[in-house]
Design a protein that fits this description.
Oligomer: single chain
Strand content: under 5%
Radius of gyration: 18 Å
Helix content: 40-55%
Largest sheet: none
Number of helices: 3
Number of strands: 0
Structural class: mainly alpha
């Protein structure tokens, strides 16, 4: 493998993943709250979006401390 193998791997991975039906991953917590009448999942999503900084997404360290 040469010095440009990283770009080749990323390109090939992109081509292969375009054939897959990738759905967003839901955690057990999100699945349990999907039909909760007290705090529905939409309310949790809204609160999380309101808590983030303007222009930030869920990859921000406030929403995902593992980043």
């Amino acid at each position: 493998m040469g010095t440009s193998s990283g770009a080749n791997i990323a390109y090939r991975t992109g081509l292969c993943s375009s054939d897959l039906n990738l759905e967003p991953v839901k955690t057990e917590f999100e699945i349990a709250l999907a039909n909760d009448e007290g705090t529905p999942l939409l309310v949790i999503d809204l609160c999380q979006n309101l808590a983030l900084l303007i222009g930030a997404n869920r990859g921000h360290e406030f929403a995902n401390p593992m980043v």
